[in-house]
Design goal:
The complex is a heterodimer of chains A (330) and B (115). Chain A has twelve helices and six strands. With 330 residues, chain A is of the alpha+beta class. In chain A, strands 1, 4, 5 and 6 form a four-stranded antiparallel sheet that branches. Chain A has a two-stranded antiparallel sheet with strand order 2-3. The model of chain A has no long low-confidence stretch (mean pLDDT 80). Chain B has one domain: Helix Hairpins (Orthogonal Bundle). Chain B is 70% helix and 0% strand. The longest helix of chain B is centred in the last third of the chain and has 31 residues. The chains are: A alpha+beta (330), B mainly alpha (115).
């Protein structure tokens, strides 16, 4: 673990940096505050990196991209909360999201990374930008540089920073020491999930056969299934531990043979997430759909403009709709 | 602790990067979002900061999902995204509504609501 002295002193330094870079009334310390905050974050990341170098036998910094993406994400999120202009805050938030997507890619969560780009950067942030442009007030006398005073002055910066970084210190303490009662369960091998997807294995076996003619299964064959007591076909006979699949030949009375596991068959991230989503949380998908529907209805109802039309205006409009004789042929 | 936290398995071992690396990034981002939510007075930026906290929790969930080699964490991030999208739609509609009434985005204008 990195030394707690380094960790806590850098957390304190980061608090000073954030405090300085928050917008304030008179003097502007945004740049030095941002630099101090970046230095604090960078030192912690460097300490983590050197620790990783000393523990891994390989030369050089492993997973260099983690440190780049992590630093970009944190620096951009610092700019989100300190930039006085809301449009710039939204744009920096897009940068945060893109850096987070890089972190997700390192964690081999490709589906989440791309979904995040599409949904967050593509949809949600565009909505934010539209609303920022929609809800902009006309410049008044008390604005300086076309900015409202509530954007230029932070509210209770000292108390907020202290309490926030106290929370961070407690969180990192728990995280770095570990929780002894938290046990790591048995590792779920991806092959185990694959045995629940027998048709996927069969498809891979067929593809293998079509490619090089060796291994794989013939068009007349299929994956064997156990037979239940009442004669109905039971589970597929796929062995994940020995990585073998049993193939039954349908032609001659159901003889079986054992074929090797397909060479290049691994469970992709999208397949895994999709299978888990459908298998374990089918009801939650429905609830998510209801939440989205309700949000859409609520947004429409809330944002609708209330039109007050008095009776005179209605009468005038009705007069205009009346057929006038000659021109009313339509 | 650094090496025992790392877990080996599919698709490759989490050797040089441990869970703590990701949880640290997540915690700092969450803290920044919290500070931003408390200190900024612009309603839109406040909601932007809540989105940042959602994002930080997403990093932690995906890191845990990778650590335990399960997909449940990533599936949960999908639902976090759903809630974030719903929240953005509702919150922005509310912001537009509030802006029409007082012609300002200052959150402290609405402190009269505290009764």
């Amino acid at each position: 673990m990195i030394s707690p002295i380094v960790l806590y002193s850098m957390i304190a330094l980061g608090a000073v940096g954030v405090l300085l870079s928050l917008p304030r009334a008179k003097a502007n310390f945004a740049l030095p505050g941002f630099l101090i905050g970046s230095i604090a974050g960078g030192v912690v990341l460097l300490a983590l990196g050197t620790k990783a170098v000393s523990e891994s036998s390989a030369n050089g910094l492993p997973n260099l991209y983690f440190y780049i993406f992590g630093f970009v994400a944190l620096a951009a999120s610092l700019r989100v909360i300190t930039h006085p202009k809301p449009v710039y805050s939204a744009l920096y938030f897009i940068l945060t999201i893109l850096a987070t997507c890089g972190l997700f890619l390192i964690l081999s969560a490709e589906f989440m990374a791309f979904a995040l780009v599409i949904i967050y950067a593509g949809a949600i942030l565009i909505t934010y930008l539209f609303v920022i442009m929609l809800a902009t007030q006309a410049p008044t006398e008390e604005m300086t540089e076309n900015q409202a005073p509530f954007d230029r002055v932070a509210r209770e910066p000292v108390l907020a920073t202290i309490s926030g970084f106290l929370l961070l210190a407690v969180l990192t303490t728990l995280m770095s020491r570990g929780v002894p009662t938290l046990t790591v369960g048995p590792v779920v091998r991806s092959d185990q999930i694959l045995t629940e997807l027998p048709l996927r294995i069969e498809r891979a076996l067929r593809d293998q056969h079509m490619l090089d003619g060796e291994g794989g299964i013939l068009p007349t064959e299929s994956l064997a299934r156990a037979v239940n007591q009442d004669g109905s076909p039971g589970e597929y006979l796929v062995d994940a531990i020995d990585r073998t699949a049993v193939v039954r030949v349908d032609a001659e009375g159901g003889s079986t043979r054992v074929v090797a596991w397909p060479e290049d068959l691994t469970l992709g991230n999208v397949e895994g997430v999709g299978y888990e989503l459908i298998k374990a949380q089918p009801g939650t998908i429905e609830i998510a759909g209801v939440i989205l529907l309700m949000a859409m209805l609520g947004a429409v109802v809330l944002a609708r403009k209330q039109m007050q039309i008095d009776d005179d205006a209605k009468r005038v409009q009705a007069e205009g709709l009346k057929p006038t004789g000659e021109g009313a042929s339509s | 602790m650094m090496t025992t936290l790392a877990q080996s398995g599919f698709p490759e071992a989490m050797t040089s990067l441990t869970l703590f690396h990701y949880l640290f990034i997540s915690a700092v981002m969450f803290t920044l979002g919290l500070i931003g939510f408390v200190t900024r007075r612009n309603l839109i930026v406040m909601f932007l900061c809540t989105e940042m906290m959602f994002q930080a929790s997403g990093i932690a969930l995906v890191a845990f999902s990778r650590f335990y080699l399960e997909y449940t964490g990533q599936v949960f991030v999908i639902f976090v995204l759903t809630v974030a999208a719903a929240e953005a739609a509702m919150a922005l509609a509310l912001v537009v509504l509030l802006f029409r009434r007082h012609e300002t985005l200052d959150g402290s204008v609405w402190s009269l609501l505290k009764g």
